[in-house]
């Protein structure tokens, strides 16, 4: 449309030139009248161009706002995705803990033995008199697995009772290979009770004493989470970075990297 207008504008310029150069038979008044028409037409063209430019600027502004909104939506989607990944990692950790608790509970239940046989039904053929057997000393009653009992109480949310039982297990069986794990679960009980300062101390002692234990990455991760719960983000960042440096290939290290990204820090 604009190109057509400019083409007409060129035609009018040629016509105006012809009118100026016409023989003296054309009056000067007619020539001036035609020039005024051409001038008004040019002004009208300029007004149309200005309106088109204004509409173009408005549309460009609308497009830019739409693009900005899309960028914000994409950023929110990415943030939600990161949060889902973090929640999945926490769930995986909890599932792993539940598996260990279930294993300990099964071990505990296996030590209970089988229930006594029910008494014989009344009526029918009377049972034969039992043959007397030599009196023997009954075997000593097997003690329940204290570690399994403590795990069962932890699973039921009885954290104070579980702490007492884990502590008793450590004192009673100091040479048992599960002693380091008992220390770890005492720290987990503290964390579950939201006693985060006590949990930090317990996790720190566990890492210092048993840095090569399979639970060490989990202890370091929970230590960082405890600092986050206390609002001490700087210290939490240090713990998460130490985890990614000391145990880079563990699930806890991947969860720590997600935590660092959530905090706006490079892993």
Characterization of this structure:
The protein has 267 residues and is an all-alpha fold. It folds into two domains: 2-70; 144-262, Serine Threonine Protein Phosphatase 5, Tetratricopeptide repeat (Alpha Horseshoe), CATH 1.25.40.10. 73% of the residues lie in helices and 0% in strands. It has nine helices and no strands. It has helices at 2-20, 28-110, 146-155, 159-172, 179-192, 196-209, 216-229, 233-246, 251-262. α1 (2-20) packs antiparallel against α2 and α2 (28-110) packs antiparallel against α9. The longest helix has 83 residues, at 28-110. The protein is rod-shaped. The relative contact order is 0.06. The model has no long low-confidence stretch (mean pLDDT 78).
Number of strands: 0
Topology order in helix (H) and strand (E) letters? HHHHHHHHH
Apparent shape? rod-shaped
What is the radius of gyration computed over CA atoms, rounded to a whole number of angstroms? 43 Å
Number of distinct helices: 9
For this structure, the CATH topology of the largest domain is Serine Threonine Protein Phosphatase 5, Tetratricopeptide repeat
Distance between the termini: 58 Å
Question: What's the CATH C level of the largest domain?
Answer: Mainly Alpha
CATH architecture of the largest domain: Alpha Horseshoe
CATH superfamily of the largest domain: Tetratricopeptide repeat domain
Sheet with the most strands? none
Q: β content, as a range? A: under 5%
Structural class: mainly alpha
How many domains make up the coordinates? 2
């Amino acid at each position: 449309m604009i190109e057509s207008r400019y083409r007409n504008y060129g035609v009018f310029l040629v016509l105006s030139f012809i009118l100026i150069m016409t023989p003296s038979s054309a009056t000067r008044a007619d020539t001036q009248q035609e020039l005024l028409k051409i001038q008004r037409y040019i002004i009208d063209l300029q007004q149309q161009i200005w309106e088109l430019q204004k509409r173009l600027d408005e549309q460009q502004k609308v497009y830019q706002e739409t693009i900005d909104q899309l960028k914000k939506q994409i950023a929110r989607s990415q943030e939600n995705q990161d949060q889902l990944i973090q929640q999945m990692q926490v769930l995986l950790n909890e599932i792993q803990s539940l598996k260990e608790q279930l294993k300990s509970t099964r071990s505990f239940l296996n030590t209970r033995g089988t229930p006594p046989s029910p008494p014989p039904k009344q009526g029918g053929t009377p049972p034969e008199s039992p043959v007397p057997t030599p009196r023997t000393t009954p075997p000593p009653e097997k003690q329940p697995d204290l570690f399994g009992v403590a795990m069962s109480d932890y699973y039921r949310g009885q954290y104070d009772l579980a702490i007492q039982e884990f502590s008793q297990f450590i004192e009673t069986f100091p040479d048992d290979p599960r002693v380091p794990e008992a220390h770890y679960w005492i720290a987990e009980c503290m964390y579950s009770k939201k006693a985060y300062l006590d949990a930090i101390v317990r996790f720190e002692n566990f890492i210092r004493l048993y840095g090569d234990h399979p639970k060490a990455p989990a202890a370091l991760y929970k230590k960082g989470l405890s600092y986050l719960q206390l609002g001490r983000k700087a210290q939490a960042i240090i713990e998460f970075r130490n985890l990614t440096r000391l145990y880079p290939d563990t699930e806890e290290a991947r969860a720590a990297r997600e935590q660092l990204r959530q905090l706006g820090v490079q892993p």
